[in-house]
Amino acid sequence: MKIELAGRTALVTGSTQGIGAAIALGLGRAGARVGVNGRTTESVSRAVATLREQAPDAEFVAVAADVTTDDGTRTALQALPDVDILVNNLGIFGSRPALEITDDEWRTYFETNVLTAVRLTRAYLPGMKLRGWGRVQYIASDSAVAIPAEMIHYGMSKTALLAVSRGFAKDAAGTGVTVNSVIAGPTHTGGVEDFVYSLVDRDLPWDEAQREFMRRHRPNSLLRRLIEPEEIANLVVYLSSTFASATTGAAVRVDGGYVDAILP
């Protein structure tokens, strides 16, 4: 299967590192013109330079904008007025005992992980519908379905994305635009390494720490290892293609078999 996205423009939020950078790279290698987004000019410039080294023939556009704000969203829209593929990847996560999560933290998680994606969908979806083609995706998590006791504010935000995705898919019904969620499982990124070491012995070598984390905190995983960002990106690139034209309103899992259910 050769996925060809030449002539398509994509925006991947939060794409200066981790899963977002892997998605940007995958879309770029498939031929799309890709907007690389982060909060600062410096971080975006570094990411774009790295991506260009990895995919010299791809086209990457710097989109330095804090899309959690109205002003930042306007900046992103000025850089990329129209996109064919919107990947709402930006998200924050962290561990906190349930009864210690403050009102401000609840609001921050909702506004960052959910409302930012809603705002960008509201901005770009009408153009996709008018053109008769488009792809909107939300990077959700196994935590949307199996809420972790140590981070229920994060789980709440990812559950909300499943509802948002299904709702916007209904809005786009019959237009040639598909809207889906990607349920990512525990994934190996720099931020996750820090999170793993916050829950296991920091003196353990990484391979042992990873196994201990999966055994103690993610025992449902059938993969029994952390997923690599490229494995998430592969599914996103497929869902961005013409091959996925009949997949919409779905929550598609790339979770290593973590969620112990037939359906999400």
UniProtKB/TrEMBL annotation:
Record's protein name: Short-chain dehydrogenase
PANTHER family: 3-OXOACYL-(ACYL-CARRIER-PROTEIN) REDUCTASE (PTHR42879)
Family annotation (InterPro entries): NAD(P)-bd_dom_sf, Sc_DH/Rdtase_CS, SDR, SDR_fam
Molecular function as annotated in GO: oxidoreductase activity
Superkingdom, natural source: Bacteria
Keywords assigned: Oxidoreductase
Pfam assignment, any one: adh_short_C2
Sequence similarity: Belongs to the short-chain dehydrogenases/reductases (SDR) family.
BP terms from Gene Ontology: monocarboxylic acid metabolic process
